[in-house]
Amino acid sequence: MNPEELWTGITPEEVEAIREAARIWAERVRIAYEEAAEAISRILSVLGTSDLEALDDLQEEIEKELRAKQRKQAREWEKAQAERRSSAARFAQYRRQELKWTAGRRVRPRQREYKPP
After folding, report:
1. Is 104 left (phi over 0), alpha (psi -120 to 50) or beta?
2. Per-residue pLDDT tens for 74-94?
3. How far is the first Cα of the chain from the last one, in angstroms, to the nearest whole number?
């Protein structure tokens, strides 16, 4: 089967023009591929192995700082929790003392006196 027979209704000049366009397109794609490969190789050669090691060191340093920050936040959270518990304990103590003062009296809650123990 002749390739020209596949192109029914197209003149041989049009077939040649299509082939030429395909050849030009293939050449452009090949050139673009070679340029991309060259650019990637230039980037990798500029980075080199020493820069990759520096990047690894930087990553380890960032992870260490992140862990330190997380430990600091955990300590601050524990401190805040302890402060809340202490505040709640003081409030409970005031409440117990207040109940002692108002024991046996008919005092509405808003009329209670708040005095430290």
Report:
1. left
2. 999 999 999 999 998 888 888
3. 110
Instruction: Spell 54-90 as b/e; 16+ CB within 10 A means b.
Output: eeeeeeeeeeeeeeeeeeeeeeeeeeeeeeeeeeeee
Which of 5, 4, 2 lies closest to 13 in space, CA to CA? 4
Domain boundaries, the chain: 10-111
CA pair distance 40, 35, nearest whole angstrom: 9
pLDDT in tens, 35-56: 998 888 887 777 666 667 777 8
pTM of the shown model: 0.39
Whose CA is closest to 114, among 88, 84, 93, 86? 93
